[in-house]
């Protein structure tokens, strides 16, 4: 496939880097990161190999949910900078070949948003229908609560008007009534505004809750939401021909297919692959990859209009809600033995290196994820193996300040004024920081830089189809990725066991003799006629090969 055929589909093989401006770098010494801090690190991200920055919310907010409680969708929070800073950030990133996407929070606002302040004045207020109200809660009011440790219902009483409003998240985040055409028009205006300022697209927050006005998605409402996403996609295409919608849809593959737009593929451009990530951690916990293999066999083979965003860890809890109860308990026992490490009875509030306690396993997790067709997404700090601070409440334990130097390097303000505190001990900045790792060729940072380079030097990977190569060893995952033109093939082997393995590969569609060329060390391994090869893989090891065959 020629580059000219796919230039507007940049998102199909992007390397995405999610960061929270509040915790990235403080340039005015108030203890809180800012947009100028992100600008100052654009060259750092370019050196790492990032091609797309995903900015977590930076809008005006009471900041009761890390910025996801938005009180003005058009204003940069004054603590983080200005619209001028944002435009400069986008310009600087573009000049380094990096695009910028931002969060699109359509599901709810802050209760301090002017719309909600007006809506709660009276039942006849013109803004009343911007939100979802009922005189009494429905019988299923306790279903669909996102934060069960905090909220007991998805409906809250507004004492002034005596009616209840819907909130899937916190009660200070009332759900918007997206079925209202006026609300949809407001959302379109907001999308158009940020596209004019140069964003390359949006990470769409909480997609399955759109139109979920009764706490349960019904067939008709679900169809309406899909239609609405199609309209948004068309609008983005008109305003920005290569803009992308990356959706947060924590469902199994059957559920995700609908949000892609079914076979037409005209819904969301991209979705996060939650199924693979959750089964990846199950494989790491059990040293048994068979459920992961079955997941890969079920993984949707997407057309040119869609793509997966692959990830090891994101900005929320490591959710395990797509696993069975027994599987979830196995992962908890391995990686979150202390109840304080768990959250919402479904997830883990830890970062990857402290969970796995082994550099080899940590690196295996990332290599496996990068080996799949899709666009890999990193959460800031993953490139140096940052840990969490469990002294911080809830999901914020993994959203600690970026560790730039042995002294911290996040802010010149006194630490007591920092927005959050860094981990201490083994995972503190003295032991884990950018400055030291950039000088160490064996560091996590250098490993991640090399991994990103290997991914970017194989653009065919993002466009390829995936085929599992069955193995007798339950700890081994082997798969083959083949380009649409069948002119490029990569074979990836990953060992989730602590013991080395001799892996037999029966390479489908490879009938002649040839050579497997190791993508990481350049070594060459001949294979016999009929596509039969044997590969040695160390404990928690991995091998990537491209196939070379004589030209006919």
Descriptive key words:
TIM Barrel; Oligo-1,6-glucosidase, domain 2; 16 helices; 6-stranded antiparallel sheet; 28% helix; 24 strands; globular; Glyco_hydro_b; alpha/beta; 19% strand; 3 domains
Report on this model:
This protein is an alpha/beta fold and 552 residues long. The chain folds into 3 domains: 3-107 and 181-456, Glycosidases (TIM Barrel, Alpha-Beta Barrel), CATH 3.20.20.80; 114-166, Oligo-1,6-glucosidase, Domain 2 (Oligo-1,6-glucosidase, domain 2); 465-548, Immunoglobulin-like (Sandwich), CATH 2.60.40.1180. Helices cover 28% and strands 19% of the residues. The protein is built from 16 helices and 24 strands. The protein has helices at 3-6, 35-40, 42-48, 83-95, 114-119, 181-196, 219-239, 253-260, 274-286, 290-298, 325-335, 352-356, 359-370, 434-438, 444-456, 460-463; strands spanning 16-19, 52-55, 59-60, 72-76, 99-104, 133-134, 155-158, 163-166, 201-204, 244-247, 270-272, 307-311, 318-319, 342-343, 347-348, 375-379, 465-468, 476-482, 489-495, 501-506, 514-518, 524-527, 532-537, 542-548. The chain has an 8-stranded parallel beta barrel with strand order 1-2-5-9-10-11-12-16, surrounded by 5 helices. The protein has a 6-stranded antiparallel sheet with strand order 17-18-19-24-21-22. A 3-stranded antiparallel sheet has the order 6-8-7, with no helix packed on it. A hairpin with a 4-residue loop joins strand 7 and strand 8. Helix 6 packs parallel to helix 7. The longest helix is centred in the middle third of the chain and has 21 residues, at 219-239. The protein is globular, with a radius of gyration of 24 Å. Mean pLDDT is 94; it is low at 215-220.
